[in-house]
């Protein structure tokens, strides 16, 4: 029969030693996990830092590229603007102004509307300075208005070749009432009745210029303001074409 040796006084120191061992093991395990996490976090932080630096480098390169493109575009735009100004100056110098520029615009409009270029060239080549023109003559007649109640007034060319009449807006007095005579500051409508039955009209503020072709003659009219109620019409005629 075996006899076990048991010392009751050793029980408490053994328990304390076990607790200390467990505590030290737990601390070691915690320190190991914490150290591994710290190491892993450092690696992740370095990776993130590298990614951020790479993104910063790419963005910086793209920004520099965009700035270079913008600078290039601004330079090209400035160059194009200078060239446009030069072309405009050359165009104005070539065409001059006034009648020449209006003629070019009219020819461009005719071409855009489908008129054959050869036809325009033929018309231009057939044009020539007026020849065998008559001595200018002047007639005057009353401009018809909504208030005017007198007889119809007109300018009749010899042989009733062309009859000219005009309609305008009534002038107003200081009380705002309409008068029988026309207001020269308002547009008027002039009517040219040609002997062959054709009628032409011209609207605008005086002076008004108009040309009528009848037979082998070209009649040229200039309408200006005359005495109160009257319009003064000056005309002549030349060979056509």
Structure description:
With 241 residues, the chain is of the alpha+beta class. 45% of the residues lie in helices and 25% in strands. The chain has helices at residues 11-95, 99-112, 117-126, and strands at 137-142, 155-156, 162-167, 170-172, 178-182, 188-194, 199-204, 208-214, 217-225, 230-239. It has a four-stranded antiparallel β-sheet with strand order 1-10-9-8, with no helix packed on it. The longest helix is centred in the first third of the chain and has 85 residues, at 11-95. The termini are far apart.
Q: Give me the Rg, rounded.
A: 51 Å
Helix content: 40-55%
What general outline do the C-alpha atoms trace? elongated
Strand content: 25-35%
Low-pLDDT runs of 5+ residues are none
> How many discrete structural domains?
3
Question: What's the rounded overall pLDDT mean?
Answer: 84
Which tags fit this structure?
alpha+beta, 3 domains, four-stranded antiparallel beta sheet, elongated, 25% strand
Topology of this structure?
Elements lengths: L10 H85 L3 H14 L4 H10 L10 E6 L12 E2 L5 E6 L2 E3 L5 E5 L5 E7 L4 E6 L3 E7 L2 E9 L4 E10 L2
Antiparallel strand pairs: 1-10, 2-3, 3-6, 4-5, 6-7, 8-9, 9-10
At a glance:
This protein is an alpha+beta fold. The chain has three helices and ten strands; from the N terminus they run αααββββββββββ.
């Amino acid at each position: 029969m075996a006899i076990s040796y048991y010392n009751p006084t050793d029980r408490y120191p053994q328990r304390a030693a076990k607790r200390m061992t467990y505590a030290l093991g737990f601390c070691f395990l915690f320190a190991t996990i914490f150290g591994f996490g710290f190491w892993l976090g450092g690696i992740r932080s370095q990776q993130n830092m590298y990614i951020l630096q790479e993104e910063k480098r790419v963005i910086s390169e793209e920004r520099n590229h965009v700035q270079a493109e913008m600078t290039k575009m601004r330079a090209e735009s400035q160059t194009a603007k200078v060239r446009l100004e030069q072309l405009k100056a050359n165009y104005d110098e070539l065409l001059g102004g006034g009648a020449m520029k209006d003629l070019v615009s009219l020819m461009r409009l005719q071409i855009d509307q489908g008129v054959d270029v050869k036809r325009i060239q033929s018309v231009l080549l057939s044009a020539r300075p007026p020849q065998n023109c008559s001595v200018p003559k002047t007639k005057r007649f009353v401009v018809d208005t909504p208030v005017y109640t007198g007889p119809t007034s007109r300018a009749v060319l010899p042989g009733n070749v062309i009859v000219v009449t005009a309609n305008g807006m009534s002038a107003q007095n200081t009380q705002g009432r309409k008068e029988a005579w026309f207001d020269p500051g308002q547009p008027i409508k002039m009517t040219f009745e040609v002997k062959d039955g054709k009628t032409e009209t011209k609207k605008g503020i005086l002076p008004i210029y108009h040309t009528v072709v009848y037979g082998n003659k070209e009649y040229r009219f200039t309408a200006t303001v005359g005495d109160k109620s009257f319009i003064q019409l000056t005309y002549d005629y030349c060979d056509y074409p």
